[in-house]
Amino acid sequence: MSSSISSTPLGIDPPGTVHVTHDHHELGFWRKYVFSVDHKVIGIQFLFTGLFTLLLGGLMAMAIRWQLAFPWTQMPILGKILFPETGGVATPEGYTMLFTMHGTIMVFFVIIPLLTGAFGNFLIPLMIGAPDMAFPKLNMLGYWWMWPGIALILLAFGTEGGGPASGWTAYPPLSTIEAAAPGSMSGQTLWLLALTFSGVSSMMGAINYVTTIVKMRAPGLSLFRMPLSIWGLFIAALLQLFALPVLTAAGFMQLFDRIFDAGFFTPPDIVVNGFSAEAAGNAAGGHPLLWQHLFWFYSHPAVYIMVLPAMGFVSDILAVHARKPIFGYKPMVYSISAIAGLGFIVWGHHMFMSGMNPTVGMVFMTATIMIALPSAVKVFNWLGTLWGARIRLTTPMLFALAFVSMFIIGGLSGIWMASTPVDIYIHDTYIVVAHFHYVVFAGSVLAIFGAIYHWFPKMFGRMMNETLGKIHFLGTFIFTNGVFFMMHQIGIAGLMRRTADPYAYETYAHLQPLNEFISYCAFALLFWQIFFVVNLVVSLGWGKRVGRNPWGATTLEWDAPSPPGHGNFDSQLVVVRGAYEYAVPGEDADFLPQNDPSAVPDGPTHAPHAPTPAPVHASS
Amino acid sequence: MNWILSTFERLWVTALFLAVPILGVWTWVIADRYGWWFPENVSSYGDQIDHLFYVIMWMVAVTFVITEVVLAIVILYFTERKQGRSTYTHGSHKLELIWTAVPALLLVFIAFSQMEAWNDVKIDLPRGVATAEVPYTVDEPIFDVWASQFDWRVRYPDENGNFEGAGVIESPYDIYVPVDTRVVFRLRSRDVLHSFFVPNFRLKQDAVPGMAIPVWFEAQKTGSYDLICAELCGWGHYKMAGRVHVLPKDEYAAWLATARREHRSNGADDLVALGDGDDDDDE
Fold first, then answer.
1. Residues A167-225: pLDDT tens digits?
2. Do A381 and B91 touch (CB under 8 A)?
3. Which of A240, A430, A473, B176 would be A206's cystine partner, CB 3.0–4.6 Å?
4. How distant, in Å, are the alpha carbons of A79, A99, A205, A582 from that of A153?
């Protein structure tokens, strides 16, 4: 059965490293599971790393919620680890470190690695019919480049002064002047280095994804036949390519400010906590707003990096489990592109209150409000996809439906934030916190759960348990809303984010019971993930074995064995149709795989015969 | 047996998704009763801002309820329960046009309807405020607010409008202003970023070291209101509180006179250390 795949990707890598010539090419343990160049192994490495860091970031969220519900009281369990010197009671500076690290870890070491690292790596070659990534070694390097980042960010806690404490946004001068905060000592330097490692890792991935998608699609797979997951990942990779250099450069500028007193972001006459920048010989003449422009020039597109792939996964999951073609495929592609394009000219909406010229704010406001348009078009098309469908309520489908429901909330609340006058009041309040958690947690993280349940059979050749999956879904859905929906209310009541003890203010004193409710929901949300972890572990070892195509899906990855071997496919696939041919009238099968030439009247007559998809639930 | 299970599943999933709009709307309806809503507005432009919030709220609420209910209905009706296949369609050009054009018009309307309020609050300021060329009067006060870790200091000029010299008053923590009067101040920071937030005024503005940012408000009701720092400024950020006291006009004039008199008798102060009064304003 060993058949070779003729195309060496780009012909760049030396023979023998990338493409597979036979099935008996056995690698040692280290090359196979640790320093692997196989995109599937790297994807799974990213997946487990991302789930581990998700737990870390989640535990920090619990500590934050404890402090907000019961300020300055002894924190159970976590308190002993985080605040041993006070007997488990949070300290003010410790609290600022907690939310800084929660945000940093979740953005740079959870969501981006999970979406682009885990699923980008695993899915791109499989869904475009390629044997591997264009640059497998670079791919491996990208994964291992992330570890120094994780290590540094955790080490930062152990430095003198503690971890970074200037928020995940690291606004100077708080972040650049050591006297400004305990966390702005070595902790902040390590934070900058960690971000650089993570950025370089993402960059290596992005170069790989773009090259692979552009150069290595199977014959017949035109751009407009690509599954929407690939579109989401492709556009997200382009966003990273264009935006990441700016963040990296800004990070180095801040590093120079910190180490060499370069003064990019330091105004001339500041005196911080007794430390005078001028007296210290700081070159000065810099401006704090410069950092904000550079930071958000990356970090706003990063929001779309964190949601476009999720939108792609959700589109694919909806089509497969609704047994219906995607409604308005091209409008979907155009709206992904429009979100990405507009995403580059809206960064200023983070700075409406910053002191930026308010006239410029009007331009950013208009662009930001218009970005709701492609988002709305996507929602309508998802609803159109489901209308008239035959929905199967599988676990991945439930999570995909939840994404649609939650993204509606996160998208709509964005309109308030875009409006400059309304933003005067709600800027930096909990309504903003509610908004971005609806997009990034209730949106992207739920989509990631859906994607795990959906592609788990392809990754490991086994199904995840559906009953446990549905229990996991039910609790996650309820508690997610319990946590984040009520944040709108405390935000409208004016509660500021990043406030360690709000109840000292008359304005906020009555909000404590509601915050307590939110915190209980948060604790339950984390606890409920036990069902996911148990399901994951049990299914890895004992899940029901599946054939190639357990869901009856059309896209190319389901043509490969589950799990796919080195080189992915039995033979070169030739694509003859788009990605969403479900319920085609006049066809025997409910779905027509992209590479199945049998039913295409206008298909290529001499296409090499692709292997017939295995029947549903057959074993490979 | 199987159909009972699948019907049950269809129903609980529908109920779950239907609960989103129902409970969602319910929490917004009851919010006011529990104080989970705007604090009282006492500023002249607060109504403008609240009004825009409500305009957007109604559009958002209608869209939210319609889309979430449609989603729940879709789950209820189109979950696989009988033989047969999905409707085979790749989309509809007409529908795409409708659901692109209608939201586009609405969004353009929203965008344009914000601009007047934004202009009134943030752009339309008396000429020369940023450089304090506007003369100070009791009827139209102008003062400086200095933020630093972790306190607020207000500096009122002397009778001649000078921000330097013996007649200048500095008040830590408390800001005194007259009611029904347009109050203009220049917001400055001595060290890191801060943000001047008075929820009752619907007023927020970051303080940036190196900049003197002009801010104005007109309080329409006497009383004392929380001043809250809204931009992370270090470990003590959470307790960087102040109070804005809105006084009747005559009480304000009396307070100012007393403060000037007491201040003179106290003699020296630490004002000079605060800065030289020059404006490093670059906007």
1. 999 999 999 998 899 888 899 999 999 999 999 999 999 999 999 999 999 999 999 99
2. yes
3. A240
4. 20, 13, 21, 46
Pairing of strands B142-148, B183-189: parallel
Neighbours of B88 (CB within 10 A): 15
Instruction: Classify the phi-psi angles of A356: left when phi > 0, otherwise alpha if psi is within -120 to 50, otherwise beta.
Output: beta
Task: Nearest chain A residue to B186 by CA: give it.
Answer: A355
Tokens coding A549: 């195509």
For the stretch A61-114, pLDDT in tens is 999 999 999 999 999 999 999 998 899 999 999 999 999 999 999 999 999 999
Q: Which amino acid is at A519?
A: S
Separation in Å, CA of A16 to nearest CA in chain B? 43
A224: nearest Cα among A336, A132, A130: A336
A231 touches A252 (CB < 8 A): no
> Which backbone phi and psi does A95 adopt, to 5 degrees?
-65, -40
- Whether the CB-CB separation of A390 and A324 falls below 8 Å is answered with yes
Tell me how far the alpha carbon of residue A425 is from its chain's centroid: 29
Between the alpha carbon of residue A212 and those of residues A126, A134, A216, B81, B119, the distances in Å are: 11, 5, 5, 41, 48
**Residue among A270, A353, A393 whose CB faces B209 most closely:** A270
Residue window 64-103, chain B: list those with CB within 8 Å of chain A.
Answer: 64, 67-68, 70-71, 74-75, 78-80, 84-92, 95-96, 99-100, 103
The rounded distance, in Å, linking the Cα atoms of A68 and A62 is 10
Distance of alpha carbon B132 from its chain centroid, rounded?
25
| CB contact (8 A) between residue A380 and residue B95 | yes
CA of B131 vs chain A CAs: smallest distance (Å): 15
Q: What is the pLDDT of residues B3-36, one digit of tens each?
A: 888 899 999 999 999 999 999 999 999 999 999 9
Mean pLDDT of B238-250: 95
Q: Which amino acid is at A556?
A: L
Which token pair is B98? 């409708």
Q: ipTM of the predicted structure? A: 0.90
Q: Calculate the alpha carbon distances from B154 to A87, A514, B190, B240, B244 in Å.
A: 39, 34, 13, 14, 11
